[in-house]
Specification:
With 248 residues, the chain is α/β, with parallel strands linked by helices. The chain folds into 2 domains: 138 residues, Malic enzyme, N-terminal domain (Rossmann fold, 3-Layer(aba) Sandwich), CATH 3.40.50; 76 residues, Rossmann fold, CATH 3.40.50. The protein contains 10 helices and 7 strands. The strands form 2 sheets. A 4-stranded parallel beta sheet has the order 2-1-3-4. Strands 5-6-7 form a 3-stranded mixed beta sheet, with helices on one face. Helix 7 links the parallel strand 3 and strand 4. Helix 6 runs parallel beside helix 7, helix 8 crosses helix 9 and helix 9 runs parallel beside helix 10. The longest helix is centred in the last third of the chain and has 20 residues.
């Protein structure tokens, strides 16, 4: 059996990779009265008086909404929200395994960044944070910025920030091996989508000497146009030394 067949069998047999389990056991009638009615009314009253009490009396502080519209899933592209569900379940599984955080997949039909933002805004009272996942560029940039302005909970875009953290860590270790500095290095980033652009920004903030974002048309400069190039130029402008052009 090859890897593809094994993956299909794993997903079909469970089904999926996550489940909801109670954190409080209900064994007696007294337990039921505390977990549900009438006892549950008391924390409801406290939260109604002060909504921030939801972090104390519910699981909100450990709930992360994993939001995707399925428009840029791994190497599969725009496959839609239903087909993105296995990836979001996998992310929830990893969150629980490595951080004991409860991730909830939210795979949505959204035709515009505004629709995605509105959905997350409406869902915000349930969650302590949001993880944006596999949303195509440049829409992902607009969604992230808008949500950070509107919400009072953390918003993390995995394709940008998660990738950037890992790249910086790997690059610093590699440069140490070859006895070079981040400040004195010229760094080429192949691809100027969500991940590539965020990596460029992160490296620039870390003190990288020169960063050259490259897309399928070549080195991105101040005259480039297209899909996510406006974001890439914002990082590229202060880091390029001289006029570099051409393709890889």
């Amino acid at each position: 059996m090859n890897n593809r067949d094994e993956a299909l069998e794993l997903h079909a047999d469970n089904p999926g990779k996550i489940s909801v389990e109670p954190s409080v056991e209900v064994e007696t009638a007294d337990d039921l009265e505390l977990v549900y009615t009438p006892g549950v009314a008391e924390p409801c009253r406290r939260i109604a008086e002060k909504p921030e009490k939801s972090y104390k009396y519910t699981s909100r502080s450990n709930l992360v909404g994993i939001v995707s519209d399925g428009s840029a899933v791994l190497g599969l592209g725009d496959i839609g929200p239903e087909a993105s569900m296995p990836v979001m379940e996998g992310k929830a599984n990893l969150m629980k395994k490595f951080a004991d955080v409860d991730g909830v997949p939210l795979c949505i039909n959204a035709d515009s960044p505004q629709e995605s933002v509105e959905f997350v805004e409406r869902a915000a009272p349930t969650f302590g944070a949001f993880n944006l996942e596999d949303i195509s560029a440049p829409q992902c940039f607009e969604i992230e910025r808008s949500l950070k302005q509107k919400l009072d909970v953390p918003v993390f875009h995995d394709d940008q920030h998660g990738t950037a953290v890992v790249v910086l860590a790997a690059l610093e270790n590699a440069l140490e091996v070859v006895d070079k500095s981040l400040e004195g290095s010229r760094i080429t980033i192949v691809g100027a989508g969500a991940s590539g652009t965020a990596v460029a920004e992160f490296l620039h903030e870390a003190g990288a000497g020169e960063i050259l974002p490259v897309d399928r048309n070549g080195v991105i400069d101040t005259g480039s146009g297209g899909n996510a190039q406006a974001e890439a130029r914002r990082t590229d402008r202060p880091t390029q030394r001289g006029n570099h052009g051409g393709r890889l």
